[in-house]
Amino acid sequence: MAEHADADIWDSIDRLHAWLDANRAHAGQEGLLLRMLKLSEEVGEVAEAVIGAMGQNPRKGASHTWDDVRSELCDVMITAMVALRTLSPDAREVFATHLAGVQERSLGPGPTP
Questions:
Q1: pLDDT, tens digit, for every residue of 62-81?
Q2: Exposed site from 3, 6, 11, 89, fewest CB < 10 Å?
Q3: Taxonomically, which superkingdom (predicted)?
């Protein structure tokens, strides 16, 4: 099932992007800025979940679990992918090219076919 899900990720992102565009309250540059800022909101929710999972806030105690952290990280990934799709209709290719560059810088050249 995971392989099938991987193949459909960008199709899902395209559908989410279209749905968000059809239901947006703000268009143009303002809408673009708000879509990018949504990523900061989601990252803040990861931080909140980590603090809650570690019981760092004495007023709230252990308010979150590591499953909550994982869920929030997934939200960050989805939000970033939708933001990239907003800026680039060819987001799938932009991401693949960027990932290949990061891999090569970090891991060295891959095996040759």
A1: 999 999 999 999 999 999 99
A2: 3
A3: Bacteria
